[in-house]
Write a structure and sequence with these properties.
By secondary structure, the chain is an alpha/beta fold. Helix 1 links the parallel strand 1 and strand 2.
Length: 342
C-alpha cells in the first residue's frame, strides 16, 4: 500500500475539498492509502456520512494551521501542532509514506520541505515545477516558479535536469524539448546569467535543448520544459494564468451582452466547454517541488475536490514512475561529469 500524506487543512476550501478529493482518489487506486492530517474531530465529522474503504484512510490529529499571513520559517518552528508540520514529520519518519500533498501556504510548504526533509544529495536548489496545457493538446512544465528568486547558471542547469527527469519518467515524453526563458530567441540574447546557462545547456548530451524562448510562446506546444529563475517563472506563470482567466471572462461577458452572440454560443457550446476544460488547472494536479528527498506536490490555494484528487494521483503516479531515484541518478551523473571536466 502506497501512502500519500495530505494536509487536510491547507487551502481555501479545506477541510471538505481535500477530504473529498482523497476519497475520490482511493476509489481510483486500490493500493493507495491517504493519511489525512488536521483536526481529527472535524475530519471525522465529514467522514461519518461518507462511504469508503476505511483501510485506505488514516488520520493524524493536528489542531493548528499555518496561514499565508505568517512568516513560513518562524511558523514551522513555532507551530509544531500545525497540519503542515505534522504532515512533514510523518513523511520524514515513515518509509512507506512516499509523498506529501498540500494546497496551503506555499512558503510553509517550501520551508517545511527544506527544514524537515532536505534536498537530494547533489541538488544545488530544489525548484517548483507546475504543468500547464498547450495549444497543441500537450503539456509544458515551468521550472522554477518561485522557490528561488536569485539563481546562478548551475541552479538553472539543475532545474533543467530535474524537470527533464520528471517529464520523461512521469509523462512518458522520452526526449522533452527544453527551452530557456529569455528576452529573445537568438542565441546571443539575454544577460550574463542567461548567456552562461545557454552555453551549459547546449553542451549537455542528455538534454534536448532547443534554445531560447520568449514568454509569449509558453503555450504554443513547441517546447515541453521552460527553464527560468523563480522570479521570472513566477511572473510568467501568474501572468499566463491571469490572461487565460480574463480571456474566458471577456468571452462570457460578450456572449451574455448580445443576442447574436447567444445564438452563436449555442452552435459552439461544445467547443467552449472543451476549451474551458483544457484550461482548467484543476485537471492538471499541482506544482511538484523537485529536488527533495521525497515527493512534494503543491496544489493551488483555491483547489477544489477535483484538483485534490489529481494532486494525490499525481503523487501516486510519480512514485510509481520512480521520479525521485531517477532524478537523483541524473543529477549525480551531471555533477560527476562536471567534476571530471574541471
Amino acid at each position: 500500500m502506497v501512502k500519500v500524506v495530505l494536509d487536510a487543512f491547507g487551502g481555501d476550501n479545506s477541510p471538505l475539498a481535500p477530504i473529498e478529493g482523497a476519497l475520490e482518489a482511493i476509489k481510483l487506486q486500490e493500493d493507495l492509502h491517504v493519511v489525512l492530517v488536521g483536526d481529527e474531530t472535524k475530519i471525522n465529522k465529514i467522514l461519518k456520512d461518507k462511504k469508503y474503504n476505511t483501510s485506505q484512510i488514516s488520520i493524524i490529529d493536528a489542531k493548528d494551521v499555518i496561514t499565508n499571513d505568517e512568516s513560513p520559517t518562524v511558523a514551522i518552528r513555532q507551530k509544531p501542532d500545525s497540519s503542515i508540520v505534522k504532515a512533514f514529520n510523518y513523511l520524514k519518519e515513515n518509509d512507506d509514506a512516499v509523498a506529501l500533498v498540500s494546497a496551503g501556504s506555499t512558503g510553509a510548504v517550501l520551508s517545511g520541505a527544506f527544514m524537515k526533509l532536505g534536498r537530494i544529495k547533489g541538488v544545488s536548489r530544489p525548484a517548483l515545477c507546475p504543468i500547464l496545457p498547450t495549444a497543441k493538446g500537450g503539456i509544458v512544465a515551468i521550472c522554477d516558479t518561485g522557490a528561488n528568486v536569485e539563481c546562478d547558471s548551475k541552479n538553472l542547469v539543475h532545474f533543467a535536469i530535474m524537470a527533464n527527469a520528471y517529464i520523461k519518467n512521469n509523462y512518458g515524453i522520452m526526449s522533452p524539448r527544453v527551452a530557456l526563458l529569455n528576452v529573445g530567441t537568438e542565441d546571443h540574447k539575454g544577460d550574463a546569467l542567461r548567456k552562461e546557462t545557454f552555453e551549459m545547456l547546449k553542451s549537455l548530451p542528455n538534454i534536448n535543448f532547443v534554445g531560447n524562448m520568449e514568454a509569449r510562446e509558453l503555450l504554443s506546444g513547441d517546447v515541453d520544459i521552460v527553464v527560468c529563475d523563480g522570479f521570472s517563472g513566477n511572473v510568467l506563470l501568474k501572468s499566463t494564468e491571469g490572461a487565460i482567466l480574463n480571456l474566458l471572462g471577456m468571452l462570457k461577458s460578450d456572449i451574455k451582452s448580445r443576442f447574436s452572440s447567444k445564438i452563436g454560443y449555442l452552435f459552439m457550446k461544445k467547443t467552449f466547454k472543451a476549451l474551458k476544460k483544457t484550461l482548467d488547472y484543476n485537471n492538471y494536479g499541482g506544482a511538484v517541488f523537485l529536488g527533495c528527498k521525497k515527493l512534494i506536490v503543491k496544489g493551488h490555494g483555491s483547489s477544489k475536490t477535483k484538483s485534490f484528487t489529481e494532486c494525490i494521483l499525481q503523487a501516486f503516479n510519480m512514485n510509481k514512475a520512480e521520479v525521485v531515484p531517477n532524478l537523483e541518478r541524473e543529477i549525480i551523473e551531471f555533477n560527476s561529469n562536471l567534476n571530471n571536466e574541471e
